[in-house]
Amino acid sequence: TQDVNRVRLYRVFRDLSEGITTLGPYSLDSNSLYVNGYNEPSPSTTISPTQTTTPNLQTNPLDFNVTFVATNLTSAADLQDPNSELFNSTASVIVLQLNQLFRSSNVNKTFS
């Protein structure tokens, strides 16, 4: 299997979520984003080098894990139960927002 470019995915998510601040109706903790364990510390004044990559030409989708914290999602007991209507509804909204984010990105052909 091919490795996922964690840095590239992290930066796509960061850029399309307004600096890790919003995902649809959700406010995000700007220090909470991880892509397959990769995280960048809070922005500093250092300019990062531009990275170029070769697109993935394989036909099978690549799996990767994106983790973040929604700060304006009120905690409720039902959110702890993966069988609850609230959990499933919230998960559906987040999945929809993530799908829209990646469809509008320049990596959508590579990681879809």
Note the main attributes of this structure:
4 strands, 30% helix, globular, mainly alpha, single chain, 3 helices, two-stranded antiparallel sheet
Outline the secondary-structure elements.
Elements: H1 6-16, E1 22-23, E2 26-27, E3 34-35, E4 66-67, H2 85-103, H3 108-111
Antiparallel strand pairs: 1-2, 3-4
Description:
With 112 residues, the chain is mainly alpha-helical. It has three helices and four strands.
Instruction: Provide the residue-averaged pLDDT.
Output: 80
Note the total helix count.
3
Class by SSE composition? mainly alpha
Spans of at least 5 consecutive residues whose pLDDT stays below 50 are 45-57
Side by side, the strands of the main sheet go 1-2
Oligomer: single chain
Overall outline: globular
Helix content: 25-40%
Number of strands: 4
Question: How far apart lie the N and C ends?
Answer: 15 Å
- Can you write the helix and strand succession as a string? HEEEEHH
Q: Mind telling me the C-alpha Rg?
A: 15 Å
Largest sheet: 2 strands, antiparallel
SS strand fraction: 5-15%
Give a brief rundown of this model:
The protein is mainly alpha-helical. The protein is 30% helix and 7% strand. It has three helices and four strands; from the N terminus they run αββββαα.
